[in-house]
Structure formats: structure tokens, C-alpha cells
Amino acid sequence: MSGPIRVVVVDDQPLIRAGFAMVLAAQSDIDVVGEAENGADALRLLAGTKADVVIMDIRMPVMDGVEATRRLSELPDSPKVLVLTTFDTDEDAFAALQAGASGFLLKNTPPEEVVGAIRVVAAGESVVAPRVTRQLLDRFAGKLAPTPRHDERLDLLTTREREVLGLIAEGLSNSEIATRLFIAEATVKTHFGKILTKLDLRDRVQAVIFAYDSGLVAPAG
């Protein structure tokens, strides 16, 4: 992307917001364009401020991060959202992924990893490892639709693309999928790009959730 990455920090604790802003301000390719103390304030801010990435706390008064993420994801050209959580098996982290977040960060994530995650998400990738996404979905399978319905968008995929999507949902990396299917890793990336385009999805996390919701794969057990 051209120009610096525009970031908004949303957290109800002023010290945390200030800490993120200080770390990010030291990066030549990142601009903090706004701060908000809850989800409602974030939505008002983002209505008039263009951002590429939002760092979103989950537990906040007035409007929590899950609801704010859901509302943001419904907007055209919405910013990517990285949610903050305390535990990587938190039910709220799962809910945020379902709501449209591109990943989550633990609150004790080192500053350099936060910066790296922002760059990854701004580039269109997710920052949740495939296996972690799978574990979250399996752990909270009861929160998914009890009877996954066939999504007509699946019919847009070729047999190979369905196969790749299924393996992504099983938690395999691109290199592991390439080994499993006896194809080049670059070919896997090409298939995945087509999957995202055909299904109108943003990243790997959304692809895994789609695979579950559409019934392409089932929760373990």
C-alpha cells in the first residue's frame, strides 16, 4: 500500500491507548490517526476518519469490541480489525473473529509483534495461525449454526479450490497443503487468492469460518 498505515487505537484504559500510540508513533510507516475509549466512540470517529487498521479492545463499556467489529465489517471499504484479548482461547476472541476481525493480539504481546501484526493485516493477511483458528472453532462449535446450510457460493469453486479450502479449514499452512496435494506452494497461494475473490472474503480467518458455516468441514468430534 502507498503511504503510511493509518491506525486507530480503541481501548477504555487511557494508559494502554497512550502506550500503543507511543510505540506506533516511533514507526516511520505507521500513523496513529485517532483514539477512542469504547466501540461507540470508535464508530463515530471512523465515520469521519479514514483508517487501515483498528486495534480494538474487546471488553469496554457502552459498546464492546465484538459489536463494534461487527458494525465496522458491514461497512464498505471497512478497516481491518485486530482485537485485544487476555487469552487465546477466549470465547470473546472467537466471537470477534466471527464478527469480522482479521485476527487478535494478546494483551501481553511484545510491542515489536504488535507492529508486525499491524503490517501483516494492512497487507491483507490474518494474524491468527490456522491451527489456532481451528482450535477456537472446535472449542466453541456450539456457537456456530447448529445445522450448517449449503452456501451457494461454494458452487463457484472448482473441485481443487474446495479441496484447498477444506485443508485451510483443517489448520494446514500453505506449505503443508502443497505437500499434501503434491503441488507448488505458489499454486496453493494462487488457488487461495481465487477462493477469496469468488467467495468475497477478506482473509484466511474468514475463509475458515466460511468453511464451517457452509458445512464444507465439521468441528472435530
Give a short summary of the structure.
By secondary structure, this protein is α/β, with parallel strands linked by helices. 48% of the residues lie in helices and 13% in strands. The chain has 2 domains: 5-127, Response regulator (Rossmann fold); 140-214, Winged helix-like DNA-binding domain superfamily/Winged helix DNA-binding domain (Arc Repressor Mutant, subunit A), CATH 1.10.10.
Question: How would you sum up this structure, described in words?
Answer:
This protein has 221 residues and is α/β, with parallel strands linked by helices. It has two domains: 123 residues, Response regulator (Rossmann fold), CATH 3.40.50; 75 residues, Arc Repressor Mutant, subunit A (Orthogonal Bundle). It has ten helices and five strands. Helix 2 packs parallel to helix 3 and helix 7 packs across helix 9. The termini are far apart. The model has no long low-confidence stretch (mean pLDDT 85). GO terms for molecular function: DNA binding. One of its GO terms (biological process) is phosphorelay signal transduction system. This is Response regulator transcription factor.
